[in-house]
Amino acid sequence: MGKTKLLNRFMGICFSLEEQQRQRLRQQQQPSSRGNGAPVISDNLDSPGMKTASGSQVTPKNVTPVPPKKNVNDLRQNPGYSNVDIFTYNEMKLATKFFRPDYILGEGGFGVVYKGVIDENVRPGYKTTFVAIKELNRGGYQGDREWLAEVNYLGQLRHSNLVKLIGYCCEDEHRILVYEYMESGSLEKHLLRRVGCMLTWSRRMKIALDAAKGLAFLHGAERPVIYRDFKTSNILLNADFSAKLSDFGLAKDGPMGDQTHVSTRVMGTYGYAAPEYVMTGHLTARSDVYGFGVVLLEMLLGRRAVDKSRPSREHNLVEWARPLLNNNKKVLRILDPRLEGQYTARTAMKVAGLAYQCLSQNPKGRPVMSDVVALLETVQSQGAEEEMLQSGGGVVTLYEVPKRSSHNSGDKKRNQSGFSGSTEGESRRRNKPGNGRSKSEPPADREPCDFRNSSSNLENDEKSVSARK
Question: Where, by residue number, does ATP bind (predicted)?
Fold first, then answer.
């Protein structure tokens, strides 16, 4: 217990000093006498070394990577990214109607994000495209280093679960990024809303799978990329509620060859950062896995990672909830009550077990993201089968009734993560005579909330698009 309190105190000190560290970094990054006077970063950005890919592939295709830009001056002289457009500041003003306040989607220490449209009026011949335009606040948290990191990584990365970088502007002192517009905003907004439509169980599991695919893609590169800032506000949702990772300002190349980790100063968000990274500064892909576990836990419980409004022992979600995740009765009692009737106990325990493993204090005890994707895909397919069973009457048989044996009554507790399959006890419960529905399965006449009908309200209350708080 003393060790946990010490870790919390260390994390709090570390993250409270983050702004001071960034201010000192900005002072070191004042304009140099080299070139045209553009700011020069003292530490070169690591090469993304990333191969491009399409669709939902986890393994990138083999193409020659573009050398990363070491500073803004280098980017201006050698743009290099053929699939990224370079915009003028005047075009950005036209796209946002001169940065109209009612076009603001979100804002934070980095600056402001505006909704915009790039069309014939902005650039002749340009196909009409709705975009999110992120203007860097020169006095804010993000400096040229993080802005350039986003250009370097998203300039080369292409995946269905990464937000698309359409272009950028680095005219004079202006630093602007232009992304595809994500109509439904951030996962954080929908997950924590208390009125109106909320995210259903099936939609949450689909979002978890999408985000896992994005991380697996990054980790599976020839030169692995560590995202380093996995949290609900950085997971954006499009009109169909497909999830994509945004904000690559803190992304970093992972270890290569015989390296076990990369050493870096601690950055990220309190509550999501892996404990070994906070304590040592040693960064690995398993650090991202821990962050994924935190977000998965937030989706299961419908709570924030850190919430000071709750009783003191529940301030930190992971510390309070993780010990309960491998206890069948306790975990079902702490799940988001708004989800009641939308899942089977077997499925809930499988996902809770996955979160438990992702949140292991020992990095080696966490699964790799490709295994996380595989498990969540089985959860999704099982959910579809259960829906077919409920709606199809006795027409389609998806499960065989297992043969009963006299010696299986003692198999009540098994590994709940799902990596080693279902238990015989679960099979008996699933085939228990009765009304054909377990306590936590939805009744046949229950209809999920339709997000499409409420899309007009989503734009007005979007306050967290790509914002790092």
Answer: 134
User: Does the residue 436 lie in any domain?
Assistant: yes
Can you give the residue range of the structural domain that contains 46? Answer: 31-180
Q: What is the DSSP string of 171-226?
A: STT--EEEEE--TTEEHHHHHH--SS----HHHHHHHHHHHHHHHHHHHTSSS-EE
Q: Can you say which residues are annotated as belonging to the binding site for ATP?
A: 134
Residue 187 in contact with residue 207, Cβ under 8 Å?
Answer: yes
Judging by DSSP bridges, how do beta strands 129-136 and 176-180 pair with one another?
A: antiparallel
Residue 76's closest CA among 25, 151, 163, 179? Answer: 151
How far, in whole angstroms, is CA 54 from its chain's centroid?
19
Helix (H) or strand (E) holding 132: strand 129-136
Please indicate, yes or no, if residue 6 is contained in any of the structural domains.
no
Q: What is the pLDDT of residue 2?
A: 55
Distance, in Å, from the CA atom of 136 to the CA atom of 112, rounded to the nearest integer, reads: 7
Kindly list the catalytic residues.
229
Compute the Cα dihedral for 435, 436, 438, 441 and give only its sign.
negative
